[in-house]
Design a protein that fits this description.
Layout: H1 3-17, H2 24-31, H3 45-56, H4 58-61, H5 72-88, H6 93-97, H7 106-118, H8 123-150, H9 165-186
Helix pairs in contact: 1-2, 1-3, 5-8, 5-9, 7-8, 8-9
Length: 200
């Protein structure tokens, strides 16, 4: 047994029973060890959950970083969609991620913000857009996964159409992107087109 094995089994347990039911007792039983032996790798359950959240984000964390040749709009959309897909890979993925601190991802976050700034996005707007997109995505997935966990009890009242979660996400994401693009107009760029730095 090693740290990576513990995390992998903890994520497997999460997928089976959900976040509420994840416990060190159940994890120890799953691993075939005594519960105190887990403290060698994680001093508290909070430490374990933080490690699980970081590992669950691995698919998104391995996505290619933007390059100067990329269009910032396309990248912003793709990056946020990648984040959503990753949250949906795990049962209660959004709940696991919510409140976690991306300490191991700070260099990637800085790279992304610097890319937006280099593309012409004001730095403060770039930071707030990344934060807004992240929190919007977590909220969308929280609602989607909560509905899934409720099963039949999540039936909507008569006459109320069911929510198309992906369509709702895409519509909200477009609003965030359009709001960010409009900041170019305030910065003196009539088209928002900074491909050739014409407005800089």
């Amino acid at each position: 047994m090693n740290r990576e094995t513990v995390i992998a089994e903890a994520l497997g347990l999460l997928d089976e029973v959900g976040l509420e039911a994840v416990s060190t007792r159940r994890l120890a039983k799953r691993l075939g060890v005594e519960q105190p032996s887990l403290y060698y790798y994680f001093r508290t359950k909070k430490d374990l959950l933080a490690a699980m959240a970081a590992a669950a984000m691995a698919p998104h964390a391995r996505a290619p970083l933007p390059t100067p040749e990329d269009d910032w709009r396309d990248w912003f959309l793709d990056n946020t969609r990648s984040f959503r897909r990753t949250l949906l890979m795990r049962r209660d993925g959004a709940r696991l991620h919510a409140g976690s601190t991306p300490t191991g991802d700070l260099d990637r976050i800085r790279h992304k913000i610097n890319f937006l700034v280099a593309s012409g996005v004001p730095e403060q707007d770039a930071q707030m857009a990344m934060l807004a997109a992240s929190r919007f995505t977590v909220g969308c997935v929280l609602e989607e996964q909560a509905e899934t966990s409720l099963g039949d009890s999540a039936d909507t009242p008569a006459g109320v159409p069911p929510i198309d979660h992906e369509a709702a996400f895409e519509a909200g994401l477009a609003l965030i992107l359009n709001g960010l693009a409009s900041r170019f107009h305030e910065a003196g760029c009539p088209t928002g087109d900074h491909e050739n730095r014409k407005c800089l």
